[in-house]
Amino acid sequence: RLGVLHVGQRIEEQADFEKIYKNAWADNANACAKQYAGTGALKTDYTRQRTQWGLIMDGWNSLIRYYKNNFSDGFRQDAIDLFLGNYSVDEVEPASPLHVKKDWKFLALPIIMVVAFSMCIICLLMAGDTWTETLAYVLFWGSASFGTFAIILYNGKDFVDAPKLVQKEKMD
User: What are 54-75's pLDDT values in tens digits?
Assistant: First the structure.
């Protein structure tokens, strides 16, 4: 009806158009997802052609989204609340609710956990002279990584980057 196809042509026979259309669709999905979630869209290779690499990238994007959502996106909600007027700045109170001093554990504990876990894996891959020596190293670094993970898990709410602004109360 729009004159895109000639009389008698069928859309199913237009492989070039289908490829262009699907790529434009997937590119648009990627642009929207990057704005909303910070990563490209998941499953865009279904639209194009499913590959093993696409499956790996979906997993990677899911991990990045999980990290961003829990540990680095609180400021986005604060910005939206300020922009939409859901939070009003109190001119009387000099302290900003956005500035919260982070404790040493926010940097030190994740680094300790990653180093300890890496050392545990290295000790497993590069065995010592005896199996008891290897076992001792693996147990030490494994318990260090498990211990720091348990501390991080116990203090989980402190590590999450939650929005710091509260909704302003409804004025009647």
Answer: 888 889 989 988 888 877 777 7
**CA-to-CA distance for 45 and 54, rounded, in angstroms?**
6
Q: For the chain, which residues make up each domain, given as ranges?
A: 6-85, 92-165
Give the count of beta carbons closer than 10 Å to the beta carbon of residue 110.
Answer: 15
Task: State how far the alpha carbon of 109 is from the alpha carbons of 68, 116, 148, in Å.
Answer: 18, 10, 6
pLDDT digits (tens, 9 = 90+) for 72-103: 777 777 877 778 877 777 677 666 666 667 77
Closest CA to 82 of 172, 163, 5, 1: 163
Q: Which two tokens stand for residue 13?
A: 């026979």
| Entry pTM | 0.55
Residue that is written with structure tokens 């700045």 in the block? 89
Around Cβ 45, how many Cβ atoms within 10 Å?
17
Phi then psi dihedrals of residue 168, to 5 deg:
-70, 150
Please answer whether residues 149 and 113 qualify as being in contact, where contact means their C-beta atoms are separated by less than 8 angstroms: yes
Mean pLDDT for the stretch of residues 142-162: 85
Tell me how many degrees the CA angle 89-95-99 measures, rounded to the nearest 5: 95
Give the model's pLDDT for residue 171: 42
Q: What beta strand segments (E) does the chain contain? A: none
Q: Please name the amino acid found at residue 161.
A: D
